[in-house]
Design brief:
By secondary structure, the protein is an alpha+beta fold. The chain has 20 helices and 18 strands. A hairpin with a 2-residue loop joins strand 8 and strand 9. It is globular. The chain starts with 5 loop residues before the first helix and ends with a helix.
Length: 569
């Protein structure tokens, strides 16, 4: 396995500046990572740059699902659902450690009228069961032989056995269907690591500041290393803009008349204790919402993630869950669970922006909003926009097919059967890692966490513990995350800041009630030793991390209460 450290980052930047690559990808989210892997695995030389950390934008704020998009069936978007279900099956095969089958329980109450966004309200609920049976059968059929499990119609008693937290008053029955869960940021970083294994060069904290053009055609990019302040020119035969909600802004660097207009739509999520809502194994689909969207309660990392919303506009540089959005999610959730959630039950909140797109020539946005589009500009820039985390691989394939039409000489795609880093040998280590972990004093939950996060690369974590037994300690007392993961992140996942480790490589900022604050100084020491930080920089890193988390992930009233308690009286 190749190292992916700060030193490798600097080396990659030097190599990017020294030659000419076939493809330069701007954007290190799921889309850009997928394009880089697709290009590198098809024989192209590749450079990828990301202005912040990998997966620091929309890709880190998903509902943690790899799914077919069942709510698109009532809208008639059959092709979109079929494609997503195919990609779900592919990801279960090429990344079994990062994508896992997950059962979804959809309760039906006597007040249910429009389950999963059925376009018409069913009077007195007559026909709800039949409508669900038809829809879920279609979902199974579209999945074909790759289906995880056929849907089931179960009684109210069986539903409560599966999900003890369900409200029983008025519960008539429930439907159970299958999709998959994932760790979104770990998936992105793993795809990038796999791309590097295939020969790609990558650098986070490297911002595209302009395009190099000759005779009206883009032949490279100007970029700035935001850590050192140095600038670099990357010559490239083809440039791909894979920056999501920032796609319009990046396109504007090369033209005064960008063809893409991005309409950001904000979705928020709440993170609570899974036991509080009684959702620990199966996920729940809340049957109805005020605005016809689906809200999921998803068991994840020992917590429950609840969301999402769909609010147009907002500050894409500072995605936050507003008070009215939090109240909406709490109100909707409380309609279907026994416990009455309040803001005091929220461990953390997060928000992200989906790039809904329309052409500036007046074409409707609806056709592109939930699918994706590959657009070519007259200056040669190729922009990939829209889509879903689940379909990143298909988006990457179409992007490379477009570059092939533009003259790129590449091989056929192999990513539908190319294992992602940590997948090869996963079956062996699934059987043997618990024993090896126990020899090093790791509990069963810690071994399970390492397998689900790193797959067959988990033994590298054990090797770090062999060198320093203190790294086996938990970062938080009730969570399986350990300090060895911080060292792994800085050596193998290009983590450059404390925030990288606690917010994206481990997600402690979201799942720990203390948000990783207690572990931050020790993480800074681990990264500081690896990256050469002095005492002042280590302190600055901890303070910066705390400020970011307090701003983005803690509800305003909770922050105000904490401040009030801290003020001397």
């Amino acid at each position: 396995m190749k190292a992916l450290s700060g030193e490798i980052r600097a080396e990659h930047l030097r190599r990017m500046a020294a030659g000419r690559v076939d493809v330069c990808v701007i954007g290190g989210g799921i889309t850009g990572a997928g394009v880089a892997l697709e290009a590198a695995s098809r024989g192209a030389s590749v450079a990828l740059i990301e202005r912040n950390d990998f997966a620091s934008g929309t890709s880190s704020w998903s509902t943690k699902l790899v799914h077919g998009g069942i709510r698109y069936l009532p809208q008639g978007q059959v092709a979109l659902v079929r494609e997503a279900l195919h990609e779900r099956a592919t990801l279960l095969k090429i990344a079994p450690h990062l994508v896992w089958p997950l059962a979804f329980v959809l309760p039906i109450y006597d007040t249910t009228r429009r389950p999963i966004g059925v376009p018409v309200s069913l009077p007195r609920g007559i026909g709800v069961g039949m409508a669900m049976e038809i829809g879920l059968t279609a979902y199974d059929v579209l999945a074909g032989k790759q289906n995880i499990a056929r849907h089931r119609h179960i009684s109210a008693d069986e539903a409560v056995q599966d999900v003890p937290g369900l409200k029983t008053n008025g519960l008539k029955s429930a439907f159970v269907y299958s999709d998959a869960g994932t760790n979104d940021t770990k998936l992105v970083v793993t795809i990038i690591r796999t791309a590097v294994e295939q020969g790609a060069m990558v650098a986070n904290y490297t911002e595209a500041t302009g395009f190099v053009q000759e005779n009206g055609q883009i032949v490279g990019i100007e970029a700035r290393d935001t850590i050192t302040g140095e600038t670099v020119t990357i010559a490239a035969r083809h440039v791909v803009n894979a920056t999501g909600v920032w796609a319009e802004r990046v396109e504007s660097l090369g033209t005064r008349d960008p063809q893409v207009q991005v309409l950001p739509a904000k979705g928020i999520h709440l993170v609570v204790d899974a036991a509080k809502v009684g959702v620990t194994n199966d996920a729940v689909v809340l049957p109805e919402t005020e605005d016809g969207r689906l809200i999921f309660i998803v068991p994840w990392q020992g917590r429950a993630v609840i969301g999402t919303t769909d609010t147009p506009g907002g500050d894409i540089e500072r995605p936050r869950a507003d008070a009215d959005e939090i109240a909406y999610v709490l109100r909707t959730t409380n309609g279907s669970i026994r416990a009455r959630l309040t803001e005091a039950d929220i461990i953390s909140t997060y928000a992200g922006y989906r790039p809904l797109v329309r052409r500036r020539d007046g074409a409707k946005s609806a056709a592109l909003a939930r699918t994706h589009a590959v657009l070519s500009s007259s200056n040669g820039l190729v922009t990939i926009v829209g889509g879903k985390l689940t379909t990143y691989r298909r988006m990457a394939q179409e992007t490379l097919d477009t570059l092939e039409l533009h003259g790129l000489n590449i091989r056929a795609s192999v990513t539908d059967h190319l294992p992602l880093a940590g997948a090869d040998g996963y079956g062996h280590w699934k059987r043997t890692l618990p024993v090896e972990a126990a020899k090093r004093g790791l509990d069963a939950d810690m071994a399970a966490h390492l397998l689900q996060s790193y797959g067959s690369d988990a033994p590298l974590i054990l090797a770090l513990i062999d060198d320093d037994a203190l790294l086996a300690a938990r970062m938080a007392p009730d969570l399986p995350v350990i300090f060895a993961e911080a060292l792994f992140a800085v050596r193998y996942e290009m983590a450059m800041t404390v925030d990288d480790v606690l917010s994206r490589r481990t997600r402690l900022s979201l799942i720990d009630r203390a948000h990783g604050f207690d572990a931050a100084a020790d993480v800074a020491a681990i990264l500081g030793d690896a990256l050469g930080w002095d005492a002042a920089e280590r302190t600055r890193q901890v303070e910066s991390y705390r400020a970011t988390v307090e701003d983005l992930h803690i509800p305003v009233s909770a922050r105000d209460a904490a401040v009030a308690m801290a003020v001397p009286r």
